[in-house]
């Protein structure tokens, strides 16, 4: 199992189960062993096993529940919005190796869209980041991010090719508390196509995100473009806690 021996058992179990899926030991369509079999294999009670299986369901790695045995999903990796994770944390959670190539970290005037999203006066200086993100060395996403200056200036002391920007900023005490995500579809531009090594016009999933501090101050605006063949998104609702979904009718679209 995981080398993180201090991690809770259900976390180590979920990592082991995810490893079996990504390594092909549990291929798409494979019916997982019963809870009783897993309890015997790992010498534990049903509680940690059920927690680990629940994590796999939340990440879209397996299907099943309510009497149906869990089965490895026949789909691309899914990024869950039930938790607030960075791309790096998500990639590691599904057993993939995350990577990034930084094309730019620059101080400049905010674009009109970023200024509006961040509540800034037009012309305010911000820090912009352009990176390509990878899953197992394959281009998966383009990250175009704008930070308010007080947050973004910290990135000039960070190697943005080394890992998660969010993890670094959290270590610096930045309060990345919550985010609002808006998802739609766009066609790959010339630049998108080149960076993702795809034909121009390839359909992409666009995620626009505004990240706020605990007191509601906008800190980051990002427009990320994903290859849908490599990732999709899930949102989990329960009777007790429903995700705040908003379906937006864009101007000029047909109802």
UniProtKB/TrEMBL annotation:
Q: Which PROSITE patterns match?
A: HTH_GNTR (PS50949)
Q: Which organism is it from?
A: Paenarthrobacter aurescens (strain TC1)
Cite the HTH gntR-type domain residue spans from the record.
Answer: 7-75
Any one GO biological process: negative regulation of DNA-templated transcription
Top-level lineage group: Bacteria
Q: Which UniProt keywords apply?
A: DNA-binding, Transcription, Transcription regulation
Question: What is the official name of this protein in its record?
Answer: Transcriptional regulator, GntR-family
Name the Pfam families for this protein.
Answer: GntR, UTRA
GO terms, molecular function: DNA binding; DNA-binding transcription factor activity
């Amino acid at each position: 199992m995981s080398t993180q021996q201090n991690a809770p058992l259900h976390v180590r179990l979920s990592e082991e189960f995810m490893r079996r899926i990504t390594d092909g030991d549990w291929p798409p369509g494979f019916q997982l062993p019963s809870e009783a079999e897993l309890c015997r294999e790992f010498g534990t009670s049903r509680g940690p096993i059920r927690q680990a299986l629940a994590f796999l369901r939340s990440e879209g790695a397996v299907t099943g529940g309510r009497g149906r045995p869990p089965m490895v999903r026949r789909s691309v990796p899914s990024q869950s919005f039930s938790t607030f994770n960075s791309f790096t944390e998500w990639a590691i959670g599904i057993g993939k190796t995350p990577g990034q190539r930084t094309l730019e970290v620059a101080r400049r005037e905010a674009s009109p869209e970023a200024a509006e999203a961040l509540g800034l006066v037009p012309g305010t200086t911000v820090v912009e980041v352009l990176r390509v993100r990878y899953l197992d060395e394959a281009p998966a996403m383009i990250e175009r991010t704008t930070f308010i200056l007080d947050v973004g200036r910290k990135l000039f002391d960070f190697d943005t090719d080394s890992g998660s920007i969010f993890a670094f900023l959290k270590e610096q005490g930045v309060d990345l508390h919550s985010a609002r995500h808006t998802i739609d579809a766009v066609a790959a531009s010339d630049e998108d196509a080149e960076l993702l090594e795809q034909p121009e016009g390839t359909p992409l999933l666009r995620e626009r995100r505004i990240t706020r501090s605990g007191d509601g101050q906008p800190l980051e605006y990002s427009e990320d473009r994903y290859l849908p063949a490599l990732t999709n998104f899930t949102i989990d609702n329960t009777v007790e806690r429903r995700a705040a979904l908003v379906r937006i009718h864009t101007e000029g679209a047909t109802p």
